[in-house]
Structures are given as structure tokens and as C-alpha cells.
Design brief:
This protein has about 450 residues and is mainly α. It has one domain. It has 17 helices and no strands. Helix 4 crosses helix 9, helix 5 crosses helix 7 and helix 7 runs antiparallel to helix 9. The longest helix is centred in the middle third of the chain and has 34 residues. It is globular. The termini are close together.
């Protein structure tokens, strides 16, 4: 175990100054990036209006593939949302000290990913003004909505997950918001006084008393304990949207653990993808170090191995079942018309992450960034392969068909990524992206020290 620097190496005042100093001021690069993101979001809005005006036929969705890129995006973004709870809640319960500088960004990513995922059921609905049909409001005779439908389970699962994640994220922010409030006291100008009042209101009168800290720790622990089962339940429910059907390639008991592992896998990859440019742009290299990427690389490798095992288990069970429709569906998935997406999926999700077995790769930030991008691509294609290939190649050969995304779907997909990044960049300039309180605690306890790049996991 390598030595860890003592508390005196990084004074508490410097931690507050470094993290708070990254807020508010925006340079030309930041403004240009925000302008590009708003442009992409605007174009996606135009594509959506075009779809509403001319109908769902403009989206390329046709028989037999009635679920396409929109549901692919929905499952992808729900999966991305899982890493925040994993890193923040589960690692908090396990007392893993290395989570302290990445948990805040991961929690924010969870909120914005759920916000993005929630758009796609509305977009896929076509007639968006009937969105209330998705909500399980009370009615007689179970006519509509159908409370036995897995889509109603989605509503409960995702709304619950979003609520708990939002409360967990905001609760962790309260001491840091009070720190910012104290730094802004007596700030000159109208803008300075507005910021002081805003952060004073958001900090809920936090004074840092012993009673407040005791209640805060208890509440944070309870919310972490409540949020942890949601990692398993939410994506399990999403997987049942597929597993409850009798479509070849979907009707499988492996789907719940398979989807949960894939969700955590893609979520960890997205944390790495966002944190690399994020730490550079905000000047936080001393706080998010190779030590953290080494640990995230281990999580990435572990979940990659689980996902790879699930791929093999799927094919084994399809062969072992002796069901010709099931085996033909999986055979065609690998060597049929959608072989390209299948190869991308397996290469990006199974082969490339094996590089993380090498410690020097895990501690190479540029290499981890490239690997994480491949994983994100591979996980999007995984959802595409699961959804599209099963629908396109069901039981009756006369009903087989091919699906190709249209410009409307691709535009809205690009807009969803822009929408997600827009909120994340807005967060990075308005709220502390690293937990000031937890970094100071880690320094005081000697668990981890910013700037020290020699720690062992």
C-alpha cells in the first residue's frame, strides 16, 4: 500500500477555492459548445414537429418492426442513469473513499439521463397530446390504461427512481450550497446579491451544527439504502417489457440480470466519457486522478465480463432449448442482415474492455476515455440488436422484414445526446461538480488526498 499524503498537504480553504472557482465564469469555448448543443436540440425539435405533422411513417417504423430507435434510446438512457446510484449509494454504503470526487457528477448524470429517457415514450407515442394514457390514473373496468401491462410498471419504476435520485442528489448538495452561500456574502453588484440569495434559499438554512450534521448523516444513509435496491429493480422492470412477450430472443429469464449488468456497464462508461473533458475544462485534475480511473476501469471490466457471459448464455440456451424459432432468431442475429450491428456490439462490449486487465491501461486516462466511447457505442448497438432483430425475424417467414432508421429518428437521437450534455454542462457551471464536504472529510481522515497519483485501489 503506497503512502497517502496527510491532511496538511491540501488545506480545506484550497479545496473550496478550487471547486467553487470553477463555477459561473464561462469562456468562449463553453459558450460555443452550448450554442452547438442548442442548435442540435432545435433541429431535433424540428424533426419531431415534422413527425407529428406527417405521422409515424416518417420515422421509418413499419411492420414487423414497430419498436425501433426510439425504444433503443429509451433503454439506453435508462441504463446510463444507473451509474449514479451505483457510485453514490452502493459505494457509500461500502465506505469506498475513492467515490468522493466523482459521485456528484454521476448523480447529476443520473437525473439528466432519466429526464432524457422519459422523452422517448412520448416521442414514440406519436399523438403526444394523449400522453396521459401512459400514467396509471384510476379508472373503471381496467379499460385504459391496462394496469397489467409492463408499460405501467415502467411508469412506477422510473418515476420512483427519478424521485429518490433527485432527493439523494439534492441532499448531498446542501452542505456545499451553504459553503457557496458563505463565500458569496457581501458579493458586489446585482448579480452577486442574486446569487447569494439563491444559494441561501437552496441551502435550506444550513448552519453546520452538530444536530444538523447528525440528522443529515442519518437521512443520507437511509436514502442510500433505499436507492440501492432501485439499481436492481428499475432495469429489471424495463427488461420485463421484453421478457413478458413470446417474441424469439426476448422471452428469457436471463433478461433481468442481463439488463442490470448492461445498465451499470454503460453507466460507468458514460461517467468516464464525461469526466475526462470535464476535469480538464474545470481544472480539477488534482481531484479526479488516475486513482479514480483505475477503480472505474475495474468496475468496467467486471461488468463487461458479466455482459459477455450473458451473450454466451443466451446462445447456449437458444441452442439447448431445441426451439427452432428461437435458434433461428439468434443465428440470424449473428450472420444475417444485421450482422454489422452484432459485430460492433460484441467487439465494443466484450473484446475492447479486456484491455482493462492491464493496470497501465486503467491508469492511462486517454486510453480509458477511448475505451469508454467504444463501450457507449457498443451498448447502444446492443439495445438496437435486441429490439430490432427479434421483431424483424419472428415465427412466420412471410412476416419477416428489415428496418432502417430515418433522418427523423437519427435527428431526434442526436438531439437526445445534445439535450443530455446541455443539462450536464449547465450543472457544471452552477453547482459544485465535486462534493466539497466529502473531499474535506477524506483529507481529514487520511483516506485519500487530492493530487496524489500513487494511491492503490
Amino acid at each position: 500500500m503506497a503512502s497517502v499524503a496527510g491532511p496538511a498537504r491540501t488545506p480545506f480553504a484550497k479545496v473550496s477555492r478550487d471547486i467553487i472557482g470553477a463555477l459561473w465564469d464561462s469562456d468562449l469555448r463553453y459558450r460555443m459548445m452550448m450554442l452547438i448543443l442548442l442548435t442540435v436540440i432545435g433541429w431535433a425539435g424540428v424533426a419531431w414537429i415534422y413527425q407529428i405533422k406527417y405521422g409515424m411513417g416518417t420515422a421509418g417504423i413499419t411492420h414487423p418492426v414497430m419498436w425501433g430507435v426510439y425504444i433503443t434510446n429509451f433503454v439506453f438512457w435508462v441504463g446510463i442513469a444507473h451509474s449514479g446510484t451505483l457510485i453514490s449509494a452502493i459505494l457509500y454504503l461500502l465506505r469506498s473513499g475513492w467515490r468522493t470526487t466523482i459521485n456528484r457528477a454521476a448523480e447529476a448524470m443520473t437525473i439528466f439521463a432519466v429526464m432524457t429517457a422519459g422523452l422517448f415514450p412520448l416521442i414514440h407515442l406519436g399523438r403526444v397530446w394523449y400522453f396521459y394514457f401512459l400514467a396509471p390514473y384510476p379508472n373503471q373496468r381496467l379499460l385504459w390504461p391496462n394496469f397489467r401491462s409492463p408499460l405501467i410498471w415502467d411508469f412506477f419504476a422510473i418515476s420512483t427512481y427519478f424521485t429518490i435520485s433527485l432527493l439523494f442528489w439534492y441532499s448531498g448538495l446542501i452542505p456545499d450550497l451553504a459553503t457557496i452561500r458563505d463565500k458569496l456574502k457581501g458579493a458586489p453588484g446585482l448579480w452577486g446579491r442574486f446569487k447569494e440569495k439563491l444559494y441561501s434559499y437552496l441551502s435550506l438554512g444550513w448552519g453546520g451544527t452538530d444536530t444538523q450534521w447528525r440528522n443529515y448523516r442519518r437521512a443520507y444513509l437511509y436514502m442510500a439504502a433505499i436507492a440501492t435496491p432501485l439499481v436492481l429493480s428499475v432495469h429489471s422492470v424495463v427488461s420485463w417489457d421484453f421478457a413478458m412477450a413470446i417474441t424469439p430472443g426476448w422471452h428469457s429469464t436471463i433478461f433481468a440480470p442481463y439488463f442490470v449488468a448492461g445498465a451499470i456497464f454503460s453507466g460507468i462508461a458514460m461517467v468516464i466519457t464525461l469526466s475526462v473533458p470535464f476535469r480538464w475544462a474545470l481544472g480539477l485534475e488534482d481531484y479526479i486522478t488516475e486513482y479514480h480511473y483505475d477503480n472505474m476501469g475495474k468496475l468496467l471490466l467486471l461488468t463487461s465480463l458479466i455482459v459477455g457471459y450473458a451473450y454466451i448464455a443466451e446462445y447456449f440456451m437458444a441452442w439447448y432449448s431445441g426451439d427452432p424459432a428461437e435458434w433461428e432468431s439468434f443465428r440470424w442475429r449473428a450472420v444475417g442482415d444485421y450482422m454489422g450491428p452484432f459485430v460492433i456490439m460484441t467487439t465494443c462490449n466484450v473484446v475492447i474492455p479486456l484491455l482493462c486487465f492491464a493496470r497501465r491501461i486503467r491508469r492511462n486516462i486517454a486510453a480509458m476515455f477511448v475505451i469508454s466511447i467504444f463501450v457507449n457505442i457498443g451498448m447502444w448497438y446492443e439495445r438496437f440488436v435486441i429490439i430490432v432483430t427479434s421483431l424483424a425475424h419472428e415465427y412466420s417467414p412471410g412476416a419477416w422484414g428489415l428496418y432502417k432508421p430515418s433522418w427523423v429518428e437519427l435527428s431526434i437521437t442526436a438531439g437526445s445526446f445534445a439535450w443530455f450534455l446541455f443539462w450536464f454542462m449547465l450543472f457544471a457551471k452552477t453547482l459544485p461538480a465535486i462534493s466539497i464536504t466529502e473531499v474535506k472529510e477524506s483529507i481529514a481522515e487520511g483516506v485519500w488526498s487530492p493530487g496524489d497519483k500513487k494511491e492503490e485501489a
